[in-house]
Amino acid sequence: MNDHDWLKAPLAELCERADTIRNDGFGNLVTYSRKVFVPLTMLCRDVCHYCTFAQTPRHLAAAFLPPEQVMDIALRGKAAGCKEVLFTLGDKPELRYKAARDALDELGYATTLEYVAAMAERVVEETGLLPHLNPGVLSADDYRRLRPFAPSMGLMLESAAARLCEQGQPHHGSPDKVPEVRLNSIAEAGRAGVPLTTGLLVGIGETRAERIESLQALHAIHAQYGHIQELIIQNFVPKAATKMHAAPAPDFDELRWTIAVARLMFGQQMSIQVPPNLNAGRLRELVAAGVNDWGGVSPITPDHVNPEAPWPHLEELAAETKAAGKHLIERLTIYPAYIHDAERWLDPGLRPRVLKWTDADGLARDDHWAAGQAQGEKPQPPSQACRSQKQSLLQKAREGLGFSEAETVALFRARGDEFDEIW
Predict the structure, then answer these.
(1) φ, ψ for residue 138 (rounded to 5)?
(2) Domain-embedded: residue 150
(3) What is the reported pLDDT for 376?
(4) Do 296 and 402 sit in the same domain of this protein?
(5) What are phi and psi of 350, to 5 degrees?
(6) Phi, psi for 13 (deg, rounded to 5)
(7) Which of 50, 202, 210, 262 reaches 20 to 30 Å from 386, CA-CA?
């Protein structure tokens, strides 16, 4: 099925095919990351017409979150069982605001990225938690500077439609939202060996054909470097006090269509995420369109980018995921495939810190037990085939038949309802 077929095919057909591919890759699992949210600065040189995160200096008590507040958030997160510290900030605010330059000078840093690196390093050294950095458009040198302190980073493409940067469009006046600039930065992450989160923002004026073009641009970069660990397909939500406050939210079918096309294009190994707090009560339909991840969910800090949409309680998220026929399980900020190839994707200093939080499948460990170094083939995410295998093994057990060593290992990898049924 090509892009022309995707534009013509019935949504139900696209979702059915995407759901099958999702199940082949991820079986009965849907993942999330338990995190805390650090809004390091809400100043930004861009002026996206739908954003309430970015503020001007007169609306802020301080240009940057001071170090003691950063560490307080991280320590509270650790106490609450979080493993990820998400740093979100505006793009290079010192290039626009004297207040940002003055604040950085007072803190002892020349640039925002220097401050990001220093705070990420402190978090790693003093808490052992794993930073995920969203500092905006970066160069190759920037990625290399930050890589020792962050297992993963993020840069949303949002859209590859250049016309959205024209006057009257949502990205007009935002130099860092020029598609060529963002795509080049996404590629630089691949050249620097950084596992990256990226994705689309659905409903800001782009067409379906432009969404396909955006996904194709990301697919081409990923085919070259293999570093895109997840795609976020996020629906636009109009916000008060923005230029786009009266713009309509995208129809839910537009979101499902985009998810399904992303799954069909990227296949069974790509993790596809949708924010659950922006789609309360509709998670079952999202899973059926190809979603396998809910992203970072915080038990203690709000979503500072979408403050009007509170995070779901983890018990509620688990229940909604179960209603979709799946089992909710915690992952780290870096995905299993990249952990299993740590020599390529992780800075040497971070490898033992990441492995400390990792179970045998590359997901977040839920206890403190550790074994010796694993030998042999690297574990892969459980698939629909694995699930079918476990069902056949259960039948063997009921019939009193024995298991081979490989079959015994397969049983020990069961999770969720499968685990309860086996044990």
Answers:
(1) -125, 155
(2) yes
(3) 44
(4) no
(5) -90, -20
(6) -65, -45
(7) 262
Asked whether residue 299 is assigned to any structural domain, the reply reads yes
- Distance in angstroms (rounded) separating the CA atoms of residues 124 and 137: 23
Q: What is the pLDDT of residue 411?
A: 60
Q: Which CATH number goes with the domain that contains 286?
A: 3.20.20.70
Residue written as token pair 């629906």: 235
The distance of Cα 281 from the centroid of its chain, to the nearest Å, equals 21
Residue at 110 is within a domain: no
Read off the pLDDT of residues 88-144 as tens digits, 9 standing for 90 and up.
Answer: 999 999 999 999 999 999 999 999 999 999 999 999 999 999 999 999 999 999 999
Q: Are residues 183 and 331 in the same domain?
A: yes
Q: In which region does residue 80 sit, left (phi positive, over 0), alpha (psi from -120 to 50) or beta (all else)?
A: alpha
Residues 350 and 392 in one domain: no
Residue type at 270 in one-letter notation:
M
Contact 237, 204 (CB under 8 A): no
Domain count, the chain: 2
Range of the domain at 410: 384-422
Going by C-beta distance under 8 Å and a sequence separation of 6 or more, which residues neighbour residue 405? none
Residues 341-355 have a mean pLDDT of 97
- Tell me whether residue 413 is in a domain: yes
- Answer yes or no: are the C-beta atoms of 152 and 333 closer than 8 Å: yes
C-alpha angle 229/231/237, rounded to 5°?
150
Distance of CA 338 to the CA centre of its chain: 14
